[in-house]
Design brief:
alpha+beta; five-stranded mixed barrel; three-stranded antiparallel β-sheet; single chain; 35% strand
Length: 230
């Protein structure tokens, strides 16, 4: 927990009952949210990861299910109000710390948009939310999501196409550098085809392809290579 104040924020929710408010405040270690459209506006969020005690986490989970809004304050993130929308997905766990009798409760809430952006889903969307803007990671996830024929060496080219065509935008993040990709499968395939015809992209003779992407949510050195076969 060294220097935790530099990477952990606060998420607050106030529950009102018969005119009386009860404030719940939990620690926020991960966040993905849209940039605020205007000052004071409630911002759509795609992911929160929070931890606290039993009652705090229960209140936050219930509020997220009811599409309530939360106030957030975190390092490098503008203070704002967020909401996760309807049809959220929630995941809970617990973890213990030395010297603490009761374990912390951990809650992760995904918006429907982020949940549908996962590779294992069959939903095809024109907008994909990704937790990192590294070009290799972006191409790896797009290839997994859309079933694209892609090679790691094509990462820089495809990322530059996304930027040139204004199909990628930065999102607000805590503990990550999220982006939204606004492109459909056919459009990306067209860029790949043009790159191959122009000789900018090449297909190697060998069949083994190595994607050197991190499995971690945070910014850390890449994990051992993930091997795939073309």
């Amino acid at each position: 927990m060294k220097n935790a104040h530099l990477r952990i924020g606060q998420l607050e929710f106030t529950k009102w009952t018969q005119g009386k408010g009860t404030r719940f405040s939990v620690s926020l270690d991960r966040l993905i949210a849209e940039p605020a459209s205007s000052e004071g506006a409630t911002t759509p969020a795609h992911l929160i990861s929070v931890f606290g005690n039993d009652s705090e986490i229960a209140a936050i989970a219930a509020a997220a299910s009811c599409q309530e809004s939360f106030r957030i304050e975190a390092p490098g993130v503008p203070e704002s109000r967020i909401t996760l929308g309807d049809e959220t997905q929630q995941f809970r766990s617990s973890f213990a710390l030395p010297g603490r009798k009761q374990p912390f409760r951990h809650l992760v809430v995904l918006s429907k948009v982020l949940a549908d952006s996962r590779p294992e889903t069959s939903v095809e969307l024109p907008r994909v939310i990704l937790v990192d803007r590294d070009p290799t990671f972006v191409l790896f996830r797009l290839a997994s999501t859309f079933g694209l024929p892609a090679l790691p060496d094509w990462s820089s080219f495809l990322f530059s196409q996304l930027q040139r065509q204004r199909r990628i935008e930065s999102l607000i993040g805590l503990g990550c550098a999220p982006v939204a990709v606004n492109a459909i499968k056919e459009e990306i395939l067209d860029w790949i085809g043009k790159g191959l015809r122009q000789g900018t992209l090449h297909i190697p003779d060998e069949n083994n392809i190595h994607w050197n992407v991190s499995k971690s949510f945070a910014h850390e050195p890449p994990s051992p290579e993930i091997e795939a076969t073309a």
